[in-house]
Each structure stands twice: as C-alpha cells, then as structure tokens.
Specification:
Length: 157
C-alpha cells in the first residue's frame, strides 16, 4: 500500500470511527472510565477521545457527526496533497546530484501542507466547541490538557 492510500485510509477510518464513537451511549457523569479512575480510551484524534467524557446530548452527537462528515473530504484532499508532496521531497533528497533549492522548496511545500491540515483541524474543533455548553467546554479543555501517557520518568506509581 503506497503512502497516499495509507493517509487516505487513516483519515477516513479516523472520521468514521469518530462518528461511530459519538453514536455510542455516553458513560455516566459520575463514573467514566475503566474502573481505575482513567477516562475511556477513544479513537483517533485527542478531541474525539475527550468528547466521549463530556456527556453529549443526542442532538450534539448528530451535529458533531455532521461536522466530521463535512470536514472529511477536505481533510482527505489535504492528506493526499501532503502525501504527494512528501514523496516529491523524498525524490528531491534521493536525486543525484542533489539540488538544494529543489529540496528546500519541497520541504517548504510539505510544511505548508501540514499547516493547512492543522488549520482545517482547528476549524473543525472550533465548530465542535461552538456546540458545547460552558461546562462541556471546561471538561473538554481539561481532558485535552491532561497528561497523555501516565506518569513521566521518575514519577513512578
């Protein structure tokens, strides 16, 4: 499977998994998680994982699913462009003789693609946050800022 289809498949799986995850019943407000005080593991992007613990209404879930479905084609196209531009960068690096200008130009294009993806993800996140109550926004922000992988080195159990 080439890198273009890997990114495409990843983006589509991420978006559709998010829709399915949001359609699932939400955990109770007083006891989300796995029984050990940890929030449930969610699919994909951190915002999707964190949305599982903010107690979304059915209306919010369907609106968010619509936002994600609307963003999917744009994100897919951006990821395809990124994959193509990364390949061009690899080819410029592997070329003999190397052309520093071509490499630099290709690198700048890859960075621009990454910024465009980040901007689209930020726009999607803002659209989702606009649907949330103040309490839900606080829960979401807390979840997004929480440590990702447990205690760091030297912090032990």
């Amino acid at each position: 499977m080439n890198s273009l289809s890997k990114y495409t498949v990843f983006a589509l799986v991420l978006l559709f998994t998010a829709g399915l995850a949001l359609a699932q019943p939400q955990p109770p407000a007083n006891g989300p998680g796995n029984g050990q005080g940890n929030p449930p593991a969610g699919p994909g992007h951190p915002i999707l994982r964190c949305l599982q613990i903010v107690n979304l209404t059915e209306d919010q879930q369907s609106q968010i699913k619509g936002i994600l479905e609307a963003a999917a084609p744009t994100l897919k196209a951006l990821h395809e462009t990124l994959a193509t531009d990364r390949q061009a960068l690899r080819e410029a690096i592997d070329a003999t003789p190397q052309d520093g200008c071509a490499i630099g130009s290709a690198l700048i294009q890859v960075q621009a693609d990454e910024k465009a993806i980040r901007a689209e993800l930020d726009k999607t996140k803002a659209s989702i946050e606009a649907l949330l109550t103040t309490e839900q926004k606080l829960k979401l922000a807390g979840c997004l800022e929480a440590p990702k992988d447990g205690p760091g080195p030297g912090q032990g159990n």
